[in-house]
Amino acid sequence: MRILQVVTLFSPDGLYGGPARVALNQSSELAGRGHDVTIIGAARGYRDLPTELNGIPANLFEAKAVLRRSGFAWLCAPGLTKWLRDNWFRFDAAHIHFARDLVVMPVAAAARRRGIPYVLQTHGMVVPTAHPLAAPLDRGWTRGILGDARAVFFLDHKERQQLIAVAGADLRLVELGNGVPDYPAATGAPPFGQPEVLFAARMHARKRPVVFVEMAKELLRLGIDARFTLVGPDEGEGPALRAALDGDPRITWEGALSPDAIPARLADAEVYVLPSVREPFPMSVLEAMSVGVPVVVTGDCGLAPIIEQSRSGVVTDHTVPALVAAVGLLLGNRARARSMGERGRATVHEHFGMRRVADRLENTYTDALVGGR
């Protein structure tokens, strides 16, 4: 099949996070099965726009901001629309990683007008909201685009209910979890070496990097001998994070890292911590588990149930004392932590491998091409 993958934003520092990573993983697996895959989207931060991503042909267009506001909703890519007008004929179906923004919404609307089979994957980004612009946008675009999609992929029951709340129950809803490739396993820290506790995500308020720093300070105050490292691009929390770091050399922010380098960076850590709230299905947690690193997440994380069930980490509440206790537990018993990491790696291999994801995609694309539900 000739498949078009559409994503809002690509950048060297992985600013758009999980959706871009998911699209690249899917594209690589599908291309490996012989499908003709092309990636399109807006781009920011490249010296020269790449013509391929992870070996997949890519057509990227400079991102422009309609309004000078943080976030991605006001991004657009003017050259993308013209390119699509000239190239729709090259594709059998479009897989659109969908959000309420001015990059992917026009693409989905154009596919809908032209009768081109398209599927949507919303990554927990299309939810009921009281934002004053959401109601007219949903009436004019969102509901129709969702309703006419040949499939709308959802992560879990919560996202399914959110999509129904936005666009009604008559959607072609298909469950699809995220997946990761088979990354090399962590080698494990030296038995008497200084362990590292890692946070790898965007520096955004919802991710709570400052809370990670507060946790680190308390663990150090309690006498824990460890390094605490944050990796990721700034998305608004940079000033608060720098103030919180306060010059302690044992707690550092390394800045952004190429998404391709994240799995290997995770494998160097002893514990991975993501203290964020309302996290639907964090790719960084899945990647940490895949390399055999135990994880600490909060209770409303979408992966919390499987982490608890597989005993591959610690699920705790949002408070600093609870996070301190969870990380202290793992650092205080490295054998237990390694066992958790091994169970996490096995769990990801069994339930979140790319083979399972690609099987579901192929079946759904085939149904989309024949117009089946």
**Top-tier CATH class of the largest domain:** Alpha Beta
Structural class: alpha/beta
| DSSP strand count | 16
Number of domains: 2
Across the major sheet, the strand order is 3-4-2-1-7-8-9-10
Indicate the radius of gyration in whole angstroms.
21 Å
Order of helices and strands: EHEEEEEHEHEHEHEEHEHEHEHEHEHHH
Shape category: globular
| Biggest β-sheet strands, sense, barrel | 8 strands, mixed
Q: Can you tell me the CATH architecture of the largest domain?
A: 3-Layer(aba) Sandwich
Mean pLDDT: 92
Q: Determine the N-to-C terminus distance.
A: 19 Å
Give the low-pLDDT segments. Answer: none
Total of DSSP H or I helical runs spanning 4+ residues: 13
Q: What would the CATH topology of the largest domain be? A: Rossmann fold
Helix content: 40-55%
Could you give me the name of the CATH homologous superfamily of the largest domain? Glycogen Phosphorylase B
Name the beta content range.
15-25%
